[in-house]
Amino acid sequence: MKNLKLKSARAAKDLSQQQLADAVGVSRQTINAIEKGDYNPTIKLCLAICRALGRTLDELFWPDDAE
Amino acid sequence: MNVEWAIGVVVGLLIVAVACLVVRKIVLARGGKPGEYDERQQIVRGRAFTVAYATILIYLAAWMVLNAMQVPFFSNSHSVLLGLLLSVAVFAGYSIFHDAYFRTSDRPAAWLAVLAVVSALNLAIGIGRLVRGATLEARLYENANLMTGIMLAAILVCALIKLARDRRGGEE
Questions:
Q1: Cystine design at B83: which of B15, B59, B113, B146 (Cβ 3.0–4.6 Å)?
Q2: ipTM value
C-alpha cells in the first residue's frame, strides 16, 4: 500500500527523497521503499520523519478508512 | 606448511589491516563519520546472510556428491575457498540489488574503484598463472587468485548494473 501522504508532505516541504533521507539518517532507497509501501518503518523512524516534515504520526502513517 | 607462504599470509593481513586503518583515518579526518546501515538495510542484510548461508550449505552438499562420485574437482582447500567466495558473492549481490550494500554515508564510487583495482590485480595474477602454470592443478584447480578475481569482478558488475539502473530510474 503506497504512502501517498508521506510523498505529498515531502513534496509540500519541497524536499527530495535524498534530502529527507539525509535529515532522518537513512538511505534514499529506504524513503523510496516507505513511499512505495515496500517497507514498514519502525516507530522510531516514523517519528523522525514526522519531525523532519513537521507532521504528526496520524497525518502521515495512520491509514484512512478507505485504505 | 611452507615458511615463505606463512610469512606471505601474515604480511598480506598486516597490509590489509594498515590500509583499513589509513582509509578510516582519512574518512574521519574529512569530517565523515563511521558509516551505518539504516534499519531497512539491516533487515535486508540479515536476509542476504540467510541466502548466503543456504548457498554454502547447498554447495557443500553438491561437493560431497561430486566427491562420492569421484568427479575431478578443485583441491580440498580450494573447494572450501570456492564455497566461501560463492557465498560472499551471493551475499554481496543480494545486498547490492536491495540497496543494502553501501552504508548511508558511503561513497559507492570510491569503493567500486577499490574493488576494481583488487579485482584486476587478482585476475592479472590468476590469468598469468593460468597461462604459465606447471600443471593443470596449479593452473586451474589451485588458482585462488583467479577465483577471487572472478568473484570480485562479479560483485563489481552487479554494483555497476545497480548504479546504472538507479541513475536511469532516478527518484521515483
A1: B59
A2: 0.85
CA distances for A34 relative to A3, A20, A60, B44, B91, angstroms:
7, 12, 11, 14, 23
- List the domain boundaries for chain A: 4-61
- Written out in words, the top-level CATH class of the domain with range A4-61 is mainly alpha
> Which grid coordinates belong to B100?
543494502
Q: Give residue limits of the domains in chain B.
A: 1-34, 35-169
Grid coordinates of B99: 540497496
Residues of A with a Cβ under 8 Å from any B Cβ are: 16-18, 21, 25-30, 32-33, 35-36, 39, 41-42, 44-45
pLDDT for residue A67 is more than 60: no
Best probe of the A interface among B33, B36, B38, by most A CBs < 10 A, is: B38
